[in-house]
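Worked Example 4.2. Read the sequence first, then its structure tokens.
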Amino acid sequence: MDIQTTTADGILTLEFNRLARKNAITGAMYTILADALRAADTDPQVRAILITGKPEIFTAGNDLEDFLHNVGEGAMTESRPVFQFMKALEGCTKPVVAAVAGAAVGIGTTLLMHCDLVYCADNAKFSMPFSQLGLCPEFASSLLVAQSAGYTRAAEKLMLGEPFGAQEAFEMGIVARVLPAAELLAFAQGQAAKLAKLPAASIRTTKALMKRSRAALVKDTIAAENERFSAMLTGAEAKEAFTAFFQKRKPDFSKFD
């Protein structure tokens, strides 16, 4: 399975398990993730959720071949699997822990903004290369990165789209702690286990109260981003970016205003 799901001791673990393709996420994988999150949120036996990848890589983001194959009129509507996953993640009432090793590209970084406890290995590398693809931020990243890291640092990461390391992610507030790679998973599992043993109603209420003030703004930002993302996805700059990617060359945006 490209998404490996296991439940033990009150913890649902969702693991990206497509190493041959750098854990790139397909529509089918998003559907599995969304269904698992929704089921966990109503399952009294699940008290915490852990999202992780492989020691070599968290996820390379969207599988571009799969993603572009489904691009068309209305391609970024809320019925798309990626929307269903992010809606399930953002709306999950139970605590979500993420453990990140290696690269977390695009949606791989964006999804972390919607988790509760995020830990990374010292080999982690984050990037939000939307501008490099002729696109714009997604799923409230334009809001949440700026809130966490401040406008100028968020502008650097979202406008240039360049990778940044574990220590900088910690300084930006994207991750709570940086650990040696060999210790990451055990530590994250331990934190999830602590959450699973605490009063479930207390944890759910605390999470709801912390997210309450931002909920409407996040929803509004996602809608605004999606409107622009959808328009840009079929634009000339994105076409050049994706064509260059598959042709293994640098894109040339000089002819576009």
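Now turn to a second chain, presented in exactly the same format:
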Amino acid sequence: MSTTSAVHGRSGIRVAVADSLPLFREGLFALVRRSATMRWAGHAGTAPDLLRLVEHAHPDVVLLGAGVNRQPQLIPLLTGVRNTVAVVVLLEPGQLNRAHLGELLRAGARGVVARAADPFRITEAIAAATRQIHVDGQLRGLLLPREIAGEEPLPVPTRPALSAREYQVLQLIAEGLSTTQIAASLLLSVETIRTHVRGVLRKLAARDRTHAVALAFRAGLLVVPGQPDAERRQAS
């Protein structure tokens, strides 16, 4: 990723954090600020907030906590918003198994490390994920070497991921807009919007638009309108 490398040479790795616990986000903020090779890009407590943060703050790495990453579908959405972002997933104890690791790597995660790991291992994962797939040393025994290197299919298949445009359409559906209104809002044709809606229904395995919105809320991809956004601290 030559563009990312150029950014690093000027100002260090820009890191964004997504986690449901404010105290944990504060701890990672302190960790990043202490580093001479990293810069803080902001933080979020929900998936929608994180997608907006990635779009506007342009981080090089996103540290993604389990409370926000409720399903691997979020990872392709993040890389769809900005295709140079490296996603490092912070795993809870119950997620430390081969099936879940495989699912995350298939979805596009560039790094996996235990959420309870010491600061050195987390900073190591951040730096390594900008160059290659990084599986923390304490987790490598759960995967075969060929799986880590991407030479062998990983064990758990995932549903096709929503594209960034499909996610936009889903958000507008949740806000109650009709197909014609969505087309006007996104400056696209009505037929294009219908194609995106069909894609959303197929990928979420939804019966109709209402069911798709319900599934997205349940998965944490959407939040209730009017719910306060998670506060963000942007780098100066």
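Notes for the reader: The radius of gyration is 18 Å. The longest strand covers residues 38-44.
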